[in-house]
Amino acid sequence: MLRFKRNKIVLTFLFTTLFISGIFLINNNVLADTETRSVDVNAFTQPQTQQQPPPSSGGGGGGDTAPTISNVSTSSRMTSTTVSWEATDDVNVKRCEFNYSTGVNYNNSASVTSSGVNYSVQLNQLSTSTQYNFKITCYDKFQNTEKKGKFTTLSQTTIDLEILAEPEKRVNGNKSLKFNLIMANPRANNITYTLNDMTSSTGKFSKKNVVMPSGKDFVAVLKGRSHLAKRVVGVNVKKGKKLTLDFTDQGNFKLLAGDVAGTGLKDNFVDVLDISSLLTMNNTSNKEGDLNRDGIVDALDISIILKNINKCGDNIPKHNKQC
To answer: How many whole angstroms separate alpha carbon 175 and alpha carbon 149?
Structure first.
């Protein structure tokens, strides 16, 4: 009986030990499976990419660029020159400087005017027939750009000038005319000489000892106060030679009337604006509206405009209206 109880106790102990060991093994397997699955999940998870900040602008790097200077042009006369250009930048052009000289030291400076991206300088009191070198420098906040160039002023001569021009549709042989003369160099696309508000009563204008640029193949344009422009090409200006500018085409042409609206050179075009302007002068003696010079602005003057409606004068150099 005692042996039976002892064996029962031993068996109970062994059974308990085996039961506890089994639970321990099961728990270890569960933990092992859990860890394996965790590793597998991480292995198939895509890594997160950090977003890089955009490059900064300014500071002389990281996107900032120096200003760009373009479309540099020069327009020279005998003792003056205009230089113009465009300057742009990815941020903002702070200023442009202009220096010039007859050598390469650029020791003269000029005041720069600007409007948006357009810049220019006006140089006066230059020597005739002289080459000048110039340097343009434009700045933004961090960098600058230089551009160099050169121009040559025109040589001059003294001549006697004669101009032949007659207006159309005048009564009683009236040939009085108020006009501007513009001379230009078509190769350089610049105006070389002007005579403003000249008057003639006979169809012929004469002026002695006129100082103007010498050279060949100039274009001369005459613009009457109320008339469309007429041009003469291939004009040669030589020292000691009389210069005759014939805008009548040897008597075969008269200046077309009707460009009434506006001031100065006006728009060099006859249209409804001129009719409207003439109507405001109706029944007056306004000379710009009295196209036939009969002493009064009336229906006869309107008929002259209607005859020339939609006509345009020859192109005037550097004029804002080109036909």
So the answer is: 48
Residues 290, 284: Cα–Cα separation, whole Å: 8
Positions of the chain with pLDDT lower than 50, given as ranges? 1-8, 10-11, 13-15, 17-62
Tell me whether residue 77 is in a domain. Answer: yes
Number of domains in the chain: 2
Q: How many CB atoms lie within 10 A of CB 291?
A: 25
In this predicted model, what pLDDT tens digit does every residue of 80-100 receive, in sequence order?
Answer: 999 999 999 988 899 999 999
Please check whether residue 94 lies inside any domain of the structure.
Answer: yes
Domain membership of residue 263 (yes or no) is yes
Tens digit of each residue's pLDDT (9 = 90 or more) over 12-67: 544 454 444 444 444 444 333 434 333 343 433 344 444 443 443 333 444 578 99
- Give the span between the Cα atoms of 149 and 83, in whole angstroms: 10
Where in the sequence is the domain holding 112, given as residue range(s)? 68-152
Q: Is residue 243 part of a domain?
A: yes
Number of alpha carbons in the 13 Å side-chain half-sphere of residue 260 = 29
- Mean pLDDT across the chain: 84
Last residue of a domain, one of 152, 181, 212: 152
81-88/68-76 β-pairing:
antiparallel
The CATH number of whichever domain residue 231 belongs to comes to 2.60.40.4130
Beta strands 243-246 and 156-164 are parallel
- Calculate helix-pair angle for 272-280, 299-307, nearest 10 degrees: 170
pTM of the model: 0.67
Residue where a domain terminates, one of 127, 152, 177:
152
